[in-house]
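Q: What structure does this chain adopt?
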Amino acid sequence: MRRFVYGPSSFVGTFLLGLAVVATASYLLTVSPVDRYLLGQECVEARDAAGAGEWAVYQALMKEEGLSESHILIQDDSLSFESTDDSLIIPTAAVATNTDYREKNRMEYSLSCLFASNGASFITRAEIQSLPERGFWNAFHLSHPLTFGMLGLSRVGFNSDRTEAIVDFGFSCGGLCGHSSIWKFTKVDGQWQKTGSGGFDIYS
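A:
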């Protein structure tokens, strides 16, 4: 039977390893998932600019749709909007709200970068594309058995005092299951409420 004898050097090595483990665990417990995995300055700046306001609008949208954050996956890449038409997206919304919506959605953003610290679950484009085209939803539900579907979201456009918002979304839950639209929200007594929409609400 082999006997292992710990000398002074072995003890010091074990002690230092223990300190490293404790330090790493402390870091993982105190630093948000965004800072832990996405340390790029661009991500940090975008997250700080987004603040809590956008997530509050997303929550109001999900509530209006009857969706639970714990039973859906949010698509990591935000929905982008590209148009040379300068007409108002939602005519009943302020010009400033429409302009902010256009400016924020000229490019895609990583929503997990911006909002992972809110406890939401995300699905990447690569994971979506890895699922077979035929039998996509069967494969999706096998991979995510507790998930009802996927929600795509644009960035939220606000007016100057952040009392009005515009957001585009698309929810998919199967071949003939889904809903997409662009909605206006207004903050009433501190709560976001749906107060309008642009174009048509498309159901499938």
